[in-house]
Structure formats: structure tokens, C-alpha cells
Write a structure and sequence with these properties.
The longest helix is centred in the N-terminal third of the chain and has 27 residues. The relative contact order is 0.13. The chain is an alpha/beta fold. It is rod-shaped, with a radius of gyration of 33 Å. It is built from 10 helices and 11 strands.
């Protein structure tokens, strides 16, 4: 049964006459009779009895009228909803975010997004970038915001490029770093390898003069308290009042870290994802 069948049954129920029903719906009488027979075959029983004065609905016919009214109402609601999605951004946005981006950048961004698009349901997963990338490969998320480079052949948007900095609670000479405890932290393997290469190349880093934290936020607070120094990305140093010095490798290249939004091209056509990318 379809919407035209709903209109036919309800018009017949109102007019109790096949000829007048056919005229109102711009159909022929045989077409009306043929469609009634199809509906009766579908439901497995007679809907109406014909008489000289018109038609009389059977118990089955009477009984289905409330369902037909509800069906037509639901059909119209569905049409209205479909029309609204063409102008109203809704749906679900499943985000996978690196820990640093989630901590330092997401709150302000998400506040703006949810203010502009309150009908979107947002689901957030915060992990290290390698884990976010795996979620993206499995299609468990709509969009991933990751640090460092990953082999990805679909949509990619560079969000930011930032320096890594020597961070200490007060002014310090570069040569004095080897006499002060280094504060390391758990991070993605790619960045960890780069940090270790820099430490070994320029400072001949000694493992016994180190303190290890579980995350960047803890490492930053230890630096703030004067416990040691660390190599921290610019994303977490906007409110840092101590000494910070941009880091370079021995060949003169700056120690940079990129942040990307990765997504599948087909997903980017969805309005809730398209608008999030626009805000980024």
C-alpha cells in the first residue's frame, strides 16, 4: 500500500460512493475498482460492499481506517522531515580526536558548532593519533583529527602547523639543559621518535636525568612548578608564562608538528560533516 491507496480508502470512507470518489481523485471508476481489489488481496479480505445507494464498509474496512489515517499522517511527517533536512543541519557527527586537540582546541570549537547547529548529535572519542587513525580506517568515526602524517588517500585538511618548544619555568641558557631534569611524556610513536632523535643529536640526552609523565598536561604542570624542562608543542603553551624557545634540528630545520582532519570523501557530503570542516 502507498500514499495514493491511503487517499483512496479515506475518500471512499468519507463519500461512500465509488463514482464521486473517482471524480474527486481524478480517476476512472474501473481504476478505483481495480485498486480496491488489489488492496483487498493484500489485506486478505473485503473492505466494502457495493449497493445501489453506494458502498458500505465491512468490519475489516472500518477497522483499518484509523491505521490508514495514521499512515497518511506519518507519510506527511516523513515528507516534512525530508524537506527540513535540506535546509536544517542535523544527523550525527562522530569525531575521533587526538588528546591534545581535544584538550586545548575542541571546547571552543564545539561550543560554536553546537550553537550554530543544535540539532546535530555529536559523539566524541579522544585517543592518541595512531588509535584515532585505526578508528577512521574501520569507519567507526566520521572524521578524525590527528597529529603527524598518516598514509591516507581520501579527504585531508591541514588544520595547523606548530613548533615544538623548550619549556622551562624561567629563563634558561640552552647549554644548561643537560644539568636539569628532562620531563618526558607519553605520546604517539612518531613524535616520540623525533623527540628522542633531537635529544640525542643536540643534548646527548642522559636517561637517568628524566621524569616521565602520562600526558602532556601533566608534563606542562611539572614544568610550571620548576621540577624540570620539557619539549612541548605550541598548542599547549598559549597560557604558559614561563620560558619557551622554538626548537630546531641540527640541520637548521624547525621542529614542527602538523594537525590534520582526515575523512572519507563520501562522508564530507553530509551537511553535519561539511559544516564542521568549514568551521575548522
Amino acid at each position: 500500500m502507498n500514499e495514493r491507496d491511503f487517499d483512496l480508502i479515506l475518500t471512499l470512507y468519507e463519500l461512500k460512493n465509488i463514482t464521486r470518489t473517482a471524480e474527486k481523485l481524478f480517476l476512472t471508476q474501473p481504476a478505483v475498482s481495480h485498486r480496491i481489489k488489489k488492496i483487498e488481496d493484500f489485506l486478505g479480505g473485503e473492505l466494502l460492499i457495493r449497493s445501489k445507494k453506494g458502498v458500505v464498509f465491512t468490519p475489516l474496512g472500518e477497522g483499518i481506517v484509523p491505521y490508514v489515517r495514521k499512515g497518511r499522517s506519518n507519510m506527511q511527517d516523513m515528507k516534512n522531515f525530508a524537506a527540513s533536512t535540506r535546509t536544517r543541519v542535523s544527523g550525527t557527527l562522530r569525531l575521533g580526536l587526538s588528546v591534545s586537540f581535544s584538550h586545548y582546541k575542541l571546547p571552543a570549537l564545539l561550543k560554536r558548532y553546537t550553537t550554530l547547529f543544535p540539532d546535530v548529535n555529536v559523539n566524541i572519542v579522544t585517543e592518541r593519533s595512531t588509535r584515532v587513525f585505526k578508528l577512521l580506517l574501520r569507519d567507526d568515526i566520521s572524521l578524525g583529527i590527528l597529529r603527524e602524517e598518516f598514509e591516507w588517500t581520501e579527504g585531508r585538511k591541514l588544520i595547523s602547523t606548530e613548533n615544538l618548544y623548550i619549556a622551562y619555568h624561567r629563563e634558561i641558557n640552552h647549554s644548561d639543559l643537560i644539568h636539569i631534569s628532562y620531563i618526558g611524556y607519553k605520546t604517539d610513536p612518531i613524535l616520540q621518535q623525533k623527540i628522542e632523535a633531537w635529544l640525542n643529536d643536540l643534548l646527548h640526552f642522559r636517561e637517568n636525568r628524566s621524569i616521565w609523565a602520562d600526558n602532556i598536561a601533566t608534563a606542562k604542570e611539572l614544568v610550571r612548578q620548576g621540577i624540570g624542562w620539557s619539549l612541548l608543542p605550541g598548542i599547549c603553551l598559549e597560557d604558559f608564562a614561563g620560558h619557551k624557545e622554538a626548537v630546531f634540528f641540527s640541520n637548521g630545520e624547525p621542529f614542527l608538528r602538523n594537525t590534520y582532519a582526515l575523512y572519507r570523501n563520501a562522508q564530507a557530503k553530509l551537511p553535519q560533516i561539511r559544516e564542521f570542516l568549514n568551521l575548522l
